[in-house]
Structures are given as C-alpha cells and as structure tokens.
Amino acid sequence: KRFLKNCPDGMLTVEKFTKLYGKVSQDGDASMFAEQVFRTFDTNGDGKVDFREMICALYIVTHQSVESAQKLRWAFSMYDIDGNGYIEREEVLEIMRPFTK
After folding, report:
1. Nearest CA among 63, 41, 62, 61 for reference residue 52
2. What contacts 42, CB < 8 A, 6 or more positions away?
3. H or E stretch covering 12
4. Rg value, the chain, Cα
5. DSSP string for 34-87
6. Is-contact 58 52, C-beta < 8 A?
7. How would you label 35-48 residue by residue, b for 16+ Cβ within 10 Å and e otherwise?
8. What's this model's pTM, rounded to 2 decimal places?
9. 10-residue averages of pLDDT along the chain (101 residues)
C-alpha cells in the first residue's frame, strides 16, 4: 500500500527514491548512495523501479534464506558504478563519501 501511495503509477523514479531515502537516512547527503541503490533495484535498466523490482530487491536484502552468492552479486553490482565488472577504489570512495562528511 505504501508503494502505491508514494508511486500511484506503480513506478518509482530515481528522484523520488532519493527523496524518500533522504527522509530515512541520517547520513547527511546520501544521494549518491541512494542513486546506486536505485540502480541496483532497477534490474531491467529502464530508469524506474516497479513494484516487482522493489519486492525482489528487498527480499534479497532481508531474507536469510537467499543464498550468500546472490546477496554478494547484488551488493557487488551496487558498488560497481560503471558496470565494468570491477569495483575500483574511486567507486568505493564515491559511494562512501556522504558517510564520511
């Protein structure tokens, strides 16, 4: 119900996600981190997160029954900003920057 309340058309944009994330985050400006989380949730790459993508991502993150390898792949994709298959130092610094201010 909350998803549809915040996204009546059934789609969550990166702007809306960042705004909602900012309301629950106490880490200052975590917009870059929120954008990376959004990108990871947006599995089909259409620039929007639908209800199915949201539920699948939340399930992976919160359920212990999901195998560790799947969780690791999900977390890896969040830090691999440029999607080249490697997590480079600059990518980690970019993601962590809001948390170090």
Report:
1. 41
2. 48, 49, 53
3. strand 11-13
4. 14
5. HHHHHHHH-TT-SSEEEHHHHHHHHHHHH-TTS-HHHHHHHHHHHH-TT-SS--
6. no
7. bbbbbbbbeeeeeb
8. 0.66
9. 80 87 64 83 92 86 76 83 91 76 62
